[in-house]
Specification:
six-stranded mixed β-sheet; Helix Hairpins; Adenine-n6-DNA-methyltransferase TaqI, Chain A, domain 2; endonuclease activity; alpha+beta; DNA-binding; single chain; 3 domains; about 35% helix; 9 helices; about 400 residues
Length: about 400
């Protein structure tokens, strides 16, 4: 379904399509270099400037290879069609040949509208299936891009749609940033809590660094006994239903749900054993299935050690630093048993966990809001681009209020 109320025109009639500079040995070794964007820098509706490369571009070519604010960048390869607008984030910026630069031919074009249309077309509507050349690496050539039929509604409607979708995108960014700030706060809090405690005590130097004088240093093998999980159940599904009510835990939390379980406990320490999340720790409870890419410590050996506190310290200590690099990342029981944990009184352990839990709730809140906004954006993108709804039908005032509340916190 597409919006048949709009006029449709080839993209090449709306934009001048420019080619970027090809990287070469001469460009790599030249003395005077210019920063340039790759496909990896162009995300959907976002330019990522965290890592920007440079190359030498001959003076006679440079003017034609520079970006201007309002240029639309479209990926030729990788995730073909992925697009974002360059807003002049840096004074001088060029672009590589695997990006197309689209510059509006007249004032009746809002480039960000076409970012959103391309996102809907390539990720939801499937109307450009087969647009990429089927070579060794699928790519979207200049000629194919120019021939794509795209809508050309009146400029005010382009701007209204772009503004509505951009408000949701900004709300998503707000919650992303807030979650990142809260995560940084947690890391800072952990450093203070696990080295200074809450009682204002003098510190002592230990094998794991400075800790309060009254804290004991206890080897992990004296705190818990680790066991490997089981092969994951064969009825694993992504989402729970009446038939699959029990979470299946892997190296970094819930990886699915099953109608089967083999552990039932008030609290279980789970540690990622192998793969990307080896060394990651989390605490589970109730009826669960723990897969064989994780270790778990249901058996507790020290009554003075609070399980949530031990899990929090292992998260801070980052067992991932000690993974064995043999084929794939691996953390073993023996590697964990070699290390020790600083142990304050049970009361202080619980107080430390309460502080970290409060920060975790803040992080989780922002992640859940982000997930809701992601779904809202996808739904709006589809409905606005197909004409199922109009911008006039929307009330996005709650997004502005949410942003004001976040800024006030």
């Amino acid at each position: 379904m597409i919006n048949d109320a709009w006029n449709w025109r080839p993209l090449g009639e709306l934009f001048e399509i420019g080619a970027g500079k090809t990287m070469s040995a001469a460009a790599r070794d030249g003395a005077v270099k210019t920063p340039f964007l790759r496909t990896s820098n162009v995300l959907w509706d976002e330019i990522d400037l965290a890592a920007v490369d440079e190359m030498a571009i001959p003076e006679q070519e440079l003017a034609n290879k520079l970006l201007q604010p309002g240029d639309l960048l479209v990926c030729e390869g990788g995730e073909i069609g992925r697009a974002a607008v360059w807003n002049g984030e840096r004074e001088v910026m060029s672009f590589q040949n695997h990006l197309h630069r689209l510059r509006p031919l007249n004032g009746e074009v809002e480039p960000r509208f076409y970012v959103y249309f391309l996102q809907a077309a390539f990720t939801q509507l499937g109307i450009f299936e087969g647009a990429g050349n089927k070579t060794t690496i699928p790519n979207l050539s200049r000629n194919r891009l120019a021939a794509l039929e795209v809508p050309h509604p009146p400029l005010p409607e382009q701007r209204d749609i772009s503004t509505a979708l951009a408000r949701v995108r900004e709300a998503i960014k707000t919650h992303n940033h807030a979650a990142e700030v809260a995560q940084e706060l947690k890391r800072a809090a952990m450093r203070t809590l696990f080295t200074r405690g809450l009682r204002g005590e003098a510190q002592k130097e230990t094998e794991i660094g400075p800790v309060p004088e009254s804290w004991a240093i206890v080897p992990c093998e004296q705190l818990f006994k680790l066991t490997s999980g089981k092969t994951r159940p064969d009825d694993l599904v992504a989402l729970p239903s009446n038939d699959q009510p029990f979470p299946v835990l892997g190296g970094n939390g819930v990886m699915g749900y099953s109608s089967r379980w083999f552990l039932d406990a008030p609290a279980i320490l789970v540690i990622g054993r192998v793969g990307e999340y080896c060394g990651a720790t989390h605490v589970a409870s109730g009826k669960v299935w723990i897969t064989d890419n994780a270790l778990y410590a249901k058996e507790w050996l020290n009554p003075d050690a609070e399980l949530p506190y031990v899990g929090a310290f292992l998260e801070y200590f980052d067992l991932n630093r000690f993974k064995r690099m043999a084929g794939q990342p691996l953390v073993t029981q023996g590697m964990i048993y070699e290390h020790s944990i600083p142990l304050p009184s049970p009361d202080e352990q619980r107080e430390i966990v309460a502080i970290l839990d409060a920060i975790d709730r803040k992080i989780d809140l922002h992640k859940r809001k982000r997930a809701v906004l992601d779904e809202l954006f996808k739904a709006l993108l589809h409905k606005l681009m197909t004409g199922e709804i109009r911008v006039a039908d929307l009330d996005l005032s709650a997004l502005a209020r949410s942003k004001e509340l976040e800024a006030a916190e």
